[in-house]
Amino acid sequence: MGSGASAEMKPAQVSEASVEDLAAALGGLSAEERNKIQDALAALNQGPPCPGPVDCSSLSVVAKDYNGLLPQPAEPKFKGALCQIYVRGQPYGGSDKSSNGHRYDSIPFANGMIGAGMSCQLIHYVQEEHDKFFEVCKNFDFIIVRCNPGQIKADGGDQGKFDTSMKLIRKAGIQVWPSPDVMEKMGAKDALCKVATMNIGLEDTLAYYSEEDFATGFKKTMAFQPRVIKQNRGSSGEGIWIIKLKAGNYCATFGERSCEGDEVLTLFEANDNHEEEHTVAEFIEFCVNGRNDKSGTWTSKGVGKYLEGGKDAGGQIVDQRFCPRIVEGELRYNQIGDAVVGIIHKKPKEGGISAVGGTGSIYTYYEADEPKFASLTENFLKTDLPLIMPALGLAEEPVPLWWTTDFILASPEGTATADEKWIVGEFNCSCVGISKCLAAYCKDDSPNATYDDISAEDKAEANKYGTLMGTKALGIMEASKK
């Protein structure tokens, strides 16, 4: 204790003391002693670490509190966990964190499971405790993985090591949403090739895994019509190119001719809608070997090398027909299991082609039952959705709990709404965020953001999603135990 007389207040006197008396007593303590008292009060307020039926005491407690989390059921139907990661070298623990160390949208996920009669404990993966972490995981019936791509590596860990251990958890019969296999196969751009013959696909969608196949195939498809070339590893539109022949000299039938290396291409990159001109040979060189004397000068933020590491390391390029009506916008279907919960129409800014966030695109939000998209919704849910997981080599896996599908309009202008063909641009189940919770994540102008900063209206919407997730998860768990 500090040496001041005011620091000698006895515990029995606290209840009779005024606020001024308590302040005077605390004023007699050193800064270190006052900090200890603050930490002790915080510990009392947060309750036990990682509350729930599974003993997690062997793991480091990363969270400061569990604000907003419902009480765990005394006798849960199934025991679950939500796995997060706090990136210690990044501001706020990563760009998706609330000030208490949880991911900003973890509470609706966990509360949805709890509301369905299951427990859901909020745990953090700390790479130095890898073995202990996965020993604890063996005691759960399901695990919801909410680690953003790149964060495990950013915290000094090994994503491959994490995925291998999580695959073993899945192999042991414990449900993982999404499993590493589901994330990899749904997120890979060649998923578009595997659904090419469905209503939501284009039959002339090709995938390349070697330089020779890419050079030969691209020269042939490019000579026939404008194309979209997509790398596998990029995000937010980086490495997705809309490409046209500058001379416009397309052949009348596919395979009639192939482009020469010196033909000039006009390229637009989807991440920022910027335009470049390069020859066919320069573009192929950039995609394969990156920036060098043969590929010319590039203004793209990317580095190319899309085939680097080979197929097993995710090196691939997808070649798809360009659908010119993309300038009218694309649709994002937000999905919980096999249910659509909302539709977003994303329209590029005037003169642009890509509707990636941050490019000036305009977003319009619709309910899941929006009449103008009723034909697409019904056909997708009833006809194609049951076929997607088997087509991707995931027949034994359920569709993800929380995921999105982006659609592009492929029909020519004048097509009746009921007859329109919408094709998949991509699937995403890799830590999709709940946008209604964005007020809870920390950034420079809100470094202390918490769950309480979410408006009541947005909390209600997020909790609605969580409730449906809990219902879907319970159904999957009960079916798996039969």
UniProtKB/TrEMBL annotation:
Residues covered by the DUF6815 domain: 328-433
InterPro entries registered for this protein in UniProt: DUF6815
Name of the protein this chain belongs to: DUF6815 domain-containing protein
UniProt lineage: Eukaryota, Sar, Alveolata, Dinophyceae, Suessiales
